[in-house]
Structure to design on (408 residues):
């Protein structure tokens, strides 16, 4: 009996010593995974601005990371908000480069599901810049990650709003670093081939989940492991996206510092939307005259999410009992974008959008809508002039919500 007890103890000690001597390897330790991370770095870009931000963070200065994009940036598919790529990226960045346990690295996330970059650009000032914490004394984000590569299919400005937003952020006086993140759908779709031209033009860091991992689906990694549905990553997929971003940031941080980037370059698609001004339901402006007409209230059922809260909660709402008078905006402008609530609710009807008395667009929800903000381009001129925008509901007894109006 004593002999068997001794043998059993020896075996247990061997097992324990093996466990102590060898850490259990996971997918994240395997060479194919490390290579996939390297492959996801489409471009490190000019690292001068990013390295300066890292140095400031390491010295204890308060800096702000910002993320803006669609539902993937919002956190869709992750089991909790803390597990989405944007939140994970903030945690990883502040842990790696922050001081005082990373408390000096602030975070703003402006991800909103089902929306394209024109709507992101319309929201940028209010939902990114205006939300930079007071502790960051210049009031501007220092690193901005932009993720719209799966949201911009057939967006009306043909990438001009995307490029205008990129250039406007780059031109900010605090010289922020801009990173383009290209997500991917389950079927392999994204617009990285279009948008990478913008990144190349301004020598930006670009990270492609498709380049890094799509070739590994069905092999080392099941699609079901990465995707929660046809469009959104699982918590694992979000973690992989963060790993890809941190791979690019690490490569940039470890490389020799580049000379300051030359941003005085010819646009790829156009930057003619730069300086876009957005009118929300509570905007006070002397530049434009706003008559709410039959849109006196705010739609309390506007879209809500965790990173932003009520998205454009102050809007222009026509209730079924409101008069049929149009919402009218007058002023000098050359571009006009209208964001409206696309819903499948039978209580919402159609609306006509007029420029200078002429109907240029009619919009209406439908069964495939779920309350997201869609954007239409109703004026696209080269020269600014006096114009009148009108939005009028065409069906009595029906509601309609204008989320925001962008003018340039």
């Amino acid at each position: 009996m004593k002999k068997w007890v001794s043998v059993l103890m020896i075996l247990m000690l061997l097992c324990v010593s093996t466990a102590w001597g060898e850490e259990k390897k996971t997918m994240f330790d395997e060479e194919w995974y490390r290579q996939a991370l390297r492959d996801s770095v489409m471009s490190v870009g000019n690292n001068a601005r990013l390295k300066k931000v890292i140095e400031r963070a390491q010295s204890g200065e308060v800096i702000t990371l910002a993320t803006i994009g669609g539902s993937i940036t919002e956190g869709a598919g992750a089991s909790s908000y803390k597990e989405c790529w944007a939140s994970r990226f903030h945690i990883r960045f502040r842990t790696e480069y922050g001081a005082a346990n990373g408390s000096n690295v602030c975070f703003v996330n402006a991800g909103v599901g089902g929306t394209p970059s024109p709507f992101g650009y319309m929201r940028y000032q209010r939902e990114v810049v205006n939300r930079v914490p007071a502790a960051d004394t210049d009031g501007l984000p220092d690193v901005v990650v932009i993720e719209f590569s799966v949201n911009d299919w057939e967006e009306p400005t043909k990438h001009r709003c995307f490029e205008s937003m990129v250039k406007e952020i780059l031109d900010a006086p605090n010289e922020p670093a801009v990173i383009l993140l290209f997500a991917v759908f389950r079927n392999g779709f994204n617009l990285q081939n279009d948008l990478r031209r913008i990144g190349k033009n301004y020598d930006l860091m670009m990270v492609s989940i498709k380049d890094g991992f799509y070739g590994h689906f069905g092999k080392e990694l099941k699609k079901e492991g990465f995707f929660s549905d046809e469009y959104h990553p699982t918590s694992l997929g979000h973690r992989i996206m963060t790993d890809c971003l941190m791979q690019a940031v690490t490569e940039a941080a470890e490389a020799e510092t580049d000379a300051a980037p030359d941003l005085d370059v010819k646009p790829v698609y156009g930057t003619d939307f730069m300086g876009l001004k957005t009118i929300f339901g509570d905007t006070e402006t002397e530049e434009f005259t706003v008559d709410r007409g039959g849109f006196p209230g705010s739609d309390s059922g506007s879209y809500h999410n965790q990173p932003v809260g009520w998205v454009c909660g102050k809007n222009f709402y026509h209730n079924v009992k409101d008069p049929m008078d149009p919402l009218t905006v007058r002023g000098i402008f050359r571009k006009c974008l209208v964001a409206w609530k696309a819903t499948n609710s039978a209580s919402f009807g159609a609306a006509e959008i007029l420029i200078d008395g002429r109907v240029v667009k009619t919009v209406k929800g439908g069964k495939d809508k779920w309350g997201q903000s869609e954007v239409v381009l109703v004026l696209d001129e080269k020269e600014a002039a006096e114009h009148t925008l009108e939005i009028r509901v065409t069906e009595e007894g029906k509601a309609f919500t204008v989320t925001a109006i962008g003018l340039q």
User: Anything to note?
Assistant: The chain has a mean pLDDT of 94. The chain is about 30% helix and 25% strand. Residues 2-21 form the longest helix (20 residues). The domain at 27-254 is CATH 3.40.50.1110 (Rossmann fold).
